[in-house]
Amino acid sequence: MSQNLNLENIKKEKDGIDVLADIFFHAVFGELVTPADLERFKWYGVYAQDEKQEYFKLRVPLSLGELNLNQLKTLSLISKKFSDDTLIFSNEQKVEFKNLKIYDLPNIFNLLLEAKLNTRFEAGHTIRRILTCPVNGIDDTQLVDVEPLANKLNDTFIGNKNFSNLPNKLQIAISGYEEGCNVQFIPDISFNATKDVKNKIIFAIKILDKTIGYITPAQVVKTAIALANIYKDFGDRTNPQNSSFEFLVNNWGINKFFDILNSTVNYKIEKNKTIQEQTIPKKPRMGINKSKIEEQSYIGCKIASSTIQSSNLDNLSSLLEKYNASKIKITHKGDIIILDALSNSANDLAIELEKIDFNPFV
User: Fold this and answer.
1) 178, 205, 279, 341 - which has most CB atoms within 10 Å?
2) What predicted TM-score, i.e. pTM, was given to this entire model?
3) pLDDT in tens, 194-244
4) Which helix (H) or strand (E) holds 358?
5) What's the Rg (C-alpha) of the chain?
6) How confident is the model at residue 104 (pLDDT cuts 50, 70, 90)?
7) What burial letters (b/e) apply to 166-196, b meaning 16+ CB within 10 Å?
8) What span, in angstroms and rounded, lies between the C-alpha atoms of 346 and 328?
9) Angle 286-71-145 (CA atoms, 0-180°, nearest 5)?
């Protein structure tokens, strides 16, 4: 629907972050949504499924890919009450509902809000949710737990009007592993932990998977802001084909890009740094694995289909409660990891998970 629309003009007329009231207006009055507003609705994860706008779909991005028990139950409720008794776990760490009626969106948004979920910056020309590794914080082969930094990055960018009108989307990842996370594609910007010769944690700045320098943990958020502002100010807004972050970097060349970045921050980005080579391999993601948290294990499960029946999601929630586990993560491949299973009952839980098509034994 966006092929013949000038997205820069659409954003000038109204910022995508300001469209929530319009979503509620259309929900109440049922008028057809204009093509321009349909584009803006994407900032909140709302998409028309058909030309007549009889049905809509909603994509819910997950911070760090994580869901707790209450959130799982809320998603199941939304599926039963407003959708078609199914939902999709996507490989983008998102949950998707289909066949929604637009008049139900306010109630759905309210339920998500009560569960501390939201759809801001799901799409559009924004900074997306920060990507992390699915076993961050529980794998003892990881150099550092990056959850506090990832949360700061999300708090800085998601829903921030200063970053709601970029030339195109921008994807940032942060990892406690030197080699980064396997997210199935190359993020625009990555911050990967490593250690210098003094055994101190530092982060490599990777632009399109090329390391351009090293910074301290305290400089990660400031560097991310500087990078986002460079893209916002200098990315191409005249030709949609040239509007990506990748095009800007390739057009300038990596050396010019580094020089401009270095000139915009009030600290020195170390271009060359002697680092320790890390030789400890990552632990597996699937199956039962010992967590670095005492007396806990994590259980990675393949799912038979990305489309999940709400009744089966209820089965999953019941099993987590039965075995005193409380949270899962959706991986970058659309599978799930039980994060906090008790080690003394992890095998019993895994056997029951397999029975409901969440298979740890692969």
Assistant:
1) 341
2) 0.92
3) 998 888 999 999 999 899 999 999 999 999 999 999 999 999 999 999 999
4) strand 358-359
5) 21
6) very high
7) bbbbbbbbbbbbbebbebeeebbbbbbbbbe
8) 14
9) 50
254 to 108, 186, 234, 247: CA distances (angstroms)? 44, 16, 15, 11
Phi, psi angles (nearest 5°) of residue 22: -70, -35
H-type alpha helices, 132-283: 147-157, 220-234, 245-252, 254-264
- Locate 232 and state its tokens: 């916002």
The two structure tokens encoding residue 291:
């967590």
**Number of residues assigned to the chain:** 362
Question: Please, are residues 357 and 304 in contact by the beta-carbon 8 Å criterion?
Answer: yes
Pairing of strands 172-175, 189-195: parallel
The contacts of residue 256 (CB under 8 Å, 6+ apart) are: none
Rounded Cα distance between 273 and 213, Å, is 8
Burial of 75: CB neighbours in 10 Å, binned 0-12, 13-18, 19+: buried
Exposed / middle / buried, residue 234 (Cβ in 10 Å: 0-12, 13-18, 19+): middle
**Residue 317 — very low, low, confident or very high, per pLDDT cuts 50/70/90?**
very high
Q: Are strands 210-215 and 307-309 parallel, antiparallel or unpaired?
A: unpaired
Higher-confidence residue of 56 and 277: namely 56
Confidence of residue 185 (pLDDT cuts 50, 70, 90): confident
DSSP β-bridge partners for residue 97: 58
Query: Which residue do the tokens 């707790």 mark?
Result: 68
Closest CA to 276 of 340, 194, 172: 194
Amino acid 181: pLDDT? 81
Phi, psi of 308 (to 5 degrees): -115, 130
Tally Cβ neighbours within 10 Å of residue 343.
15
Q: Is the dihedral of CA 121, 138, 73, 182 positive or negative?
A: positive
